[in-house]
Amino acid sequence: MAAKLISLACIRGESSSASYGNLSPRPHYPSMPKYPKGFLPLEPEKGMEGPESKALFSVVGMTCAACAGSVEKAVKRLPGIREAVVDVMNNRAQIMFYPSFVDTETIRETIEDVGFQATLVEDETNEKSTYVCRIQIKGMTCTSCSTTVESALQAVPGVQKAQVALATEEAEIRYDPKVVSYNQLIEAVQDTGFEGILISTGEDRSTIHLKVEGLRTSTNSMRLIENSLQALPGVQEVDIDPELSKVSISYKPDLTGPRNFIEVIESTGSGHFKAMIFPQGGGRESHREEEIKQYYRSFLWSAVFTIPVFLTSMVFMYIPGLKDVMDTKVVNMLTVGELIRWVLSTPVQFIIGRRFYTGSYKALRHGSANMDVLIALGTNAAYFYSVYSVLRAATSSNVKSMDFFETSAMLISFILLGKYLEVLAKGKTSEAIAKLMDLSPDAAVLLTLDSEGNVEREEEIDSRLIQKNDVIKIIPGAKVASDGYVIWGQSHVNESMVTGEARPVAKRKGDSVIGGTVNENGVLHIKATRVGSESALAQIVRLVESAQMAKAPVQKVADRISKFFVPLVIVVSFSTWLAWFLAGKFHGYPKSWIPSSMDSFELALQFGISVMVIACPCALGLATPTAVMVGTGVGASKGVLIKGGQALESAYKVNCIVFDKTGTLTMGKPVVVNTRLFRTMALQEFYELVAAAEVNSEHPLAKAIVEYAKKFREDEENPTWPEAQDFNSITGHGVKAIVRNKELIVGNKSLMLEENIVVPVDAEEILVETEGLAQTGILVAIDRKLVGVVAISDPLKPSAAEVISILKNMNVRSIMVTGDNWGTAKSIAKEVGIDTVTAEAKPEHKAERVKELQASGYIVAMVGDGINDSPALVAADVGMAIGAGTDIAIEAADIVLMKSYLEDVITAIDLSRKTFSRIRLNYIWALGYNIIGIPIAAGVLFPSTRFRLPPWIAGAAMAASSVSVVCCSLLLKNYRRPKVLDNLEIGGVIVE
């Protein structure tokens, strides 16, 4: 968990950037130690020589967000701190630092000086205990196949969890790298009879693929390159494929990068080698395209042979002249037409249809039966009976042949056409990921700077060659090439591609930027901080990929049915043949029912084959995953990241939503709206003293006061406040400090009463008035005398009241749970239309309230943005994190609302309802198709209507069922959020 605390930091928007020292100007702390010469907190690129290090500490004793804030603040005061993230729920602190300025012992002592016990967690800082491996699996046809592979992977020692998705044809495996390697996982896949191709391995690794010209297959040549690369710091693994001249390198981006690898390779072997980024084509899309081409080629070749077979059996027999040619005897009763059909159908059965034999063998070898088994049995029954019939005619002078060669050939052709259309449609279900991946620009302009920061030269490079701490130039209209922060220039950046926020965001020195977004006007120089798999875009892609891999609980029904489906169909098929055969043998129906071209055995055989091939388990297996894939993809494009089928299924059932107040219903950016003084003193002097005390606090209300105080010092961009001595933060109450030899106490009424400070009646009335206006009153005492009240307001989000009203119309109950005081909480609740309120709630109380509602029978969603919301987000049936909130909240949530718009709560619920109605429709179609189709194929209508389904029509219908289910899911791509939400955008209010 802790390793992921900063994984989505760069998608959080401007509101969160202040939490990270290197991304925006940090506040001035009066007691902060001096930085070494050349080191500036705003410009970490200067003076920070040497590699960064990461340390994870266990911090015991933290109870709330204020505790975490005090630890984070204390650590950030130290020189050489790159980043500090404190997780109060897991009692962890993750610190990024420069060892040349500070060491882990100093950091540990600093945390203990704050009052908490700290221990360095050695093993977790050095190596993750779990890697995530993704493998492309080729050859799966139905849920029976995916279940077989999943069971085989689960049985491998060291595998903690394995998920195999039929729709994406991928496996995601969580495994312990100390016990098992990804090569062993691929072998386990291949042992089940399917082809496994590695997509990625290990979330904490970056991997680059290079093409090396001049790479010989000699052992010395390969060993020379491998040893040279292994000698580089940060290189974890080198894999060389001599056939493709491909070198794959896994590395730590903090220590090295692809340009270093190219330089080392080209300087090795006296310049015989030339290295470059390996051409695109080794990824998921290329495998999908290759699969589409394979099915297309197979279908075309099958059609080339099948069309003449169809013509000779169904058309030519009705054309005078051609009929005579077809009926010409070759040997005894064997005719030209039968011989042509035999010759042409044989390559279709055994060469083009070979995939069904291999698929059947693989399935049966592992004790399961899949769609390939049904197809192989049906086509073989038709083909070999036809061979028997033809040979009997060739060896007899009076027995005519009744062949079904057209049945086997046309069956295979229609099934291949269906599979081609299916993979074509399935490819469109993952378009959301492809679009996200396409956001990254192909090229970037790399700047080389001199010691004074002046540009020496510019060079255009492949964007995949960008390394950490590179300086990149972004011209107007160009895409930002990498996550990072601005070190020079001003501009506006359109971040809608990633965040869904259409309004361009102003960027200046120190502001963070996201790779893949578009620079609109000015030129920017950015310093790359996250590259490759660490980037925000890569994190979003990974989140959407994981969501599409996760199975919805409703899919378990289909998986259970699929286990018994194929064996049951074989039994029903054999029973159908036997029933019709015995009925014909013992004259159970008139001979006039038998078509002139066949006998009773052949009629029974056709019924049996039709039952076998019409019953398709594929449609059942694709019903849920294809809808989930499209639904999560559409959600991502709308700025709603849904973490899988479980979240979707729970969201559509939600009938009660618990809202946090600050940052969720309100803007989360408190502002000072009023000041009342009870002593004659200048307002500037008053705020000088209060800001001096509050600048040391991380509380949002304290920041609001400091920001307001800056207005009295307009001549200074970052004013220096008076020195605050004996500073003490009282969690949940306020702060105390000595400023200019005056004792300052700033906080709520309970703090004043604890300190025995008299609160005059006037102040009491003002507090009641502020709470009635949904404001928070902060009392200020100087030298133990109350001198003023500061009223702070956190404005409501413009659409809050409308969202609550719409939820009521959707029969969803809304409740507010907040840590704020009762007066403010009730006032806000009344304004937005919420009837039930819980105020002054600690994090554990929020989680308890959620559990109470669940015990009352509600399906509960929790919407929050802060660390203190994390327990409730986890406890709820569906946790929804506001995208601009903390990383811990985002990690704990099931759904992330990236745009931080409250109306996206409705979008998430509405999308999940639409997705599940589509899943139900898919199941109705898939199951209903088999319930209706199997009896018709078995000949239920034949006695009364003489209607029967020839096997090749049954095969075409079977192929169409899978295609129709996928197409039904694809209709979700046309999803539009409820029209009532479109009117809410007009009232947008932005608080800077």
* Shape estimate: elongated
Which bin fits the share of residues in helices?
Answer: 40-55%
The overall strand count is 36
Mean pLDDT equals 79
Rg over alpha carbons: 35 Å
Low-pLDDT residue spans: 1-50, 123-127, 985-992
Q: Strands of the largest sheet, in order across it?
A: 24-36-35-34-25-32-33
Describe the overall structure:
The chain is built from 33 helices and 36 strands. Residues 1-50, 123-127 and 985-992 have low confidence and may be disordered. The strands form 8 sheets. It has a 7-stranded mixed β-sheet, with helices on both faces. Strands 16-15-17-23-18-21 form a 6-stranded antiparallel β-sheet, with no helix packed on it. Helices cover 44% and strands 20% of the residues. With 992 residues, the chain is α+β, with helices and mostly antiparallel strands. The two termini are 32 Å apart. The longest helix is centred in the last third of the chain and has 34 residues, at 904-937. Helix 12 packs antiparallel against helix 18, helix 16 packs antiparallel against helix 19 (618-637) and helix 31 (904-937) packs antiparallel against helix 33 (951-970).
Search tags:
elongated; disordered C terminus; 33 helices; disordered N terminus; 6-stranded antiparallel β-sheet; 992 residues; alpha+beta
Task: Describe what is shown at a glance.
44% of the residues lie in helices and 20% in strands. The protein has 992 residues and is α+β, with helices and mostly antiparallel strands.
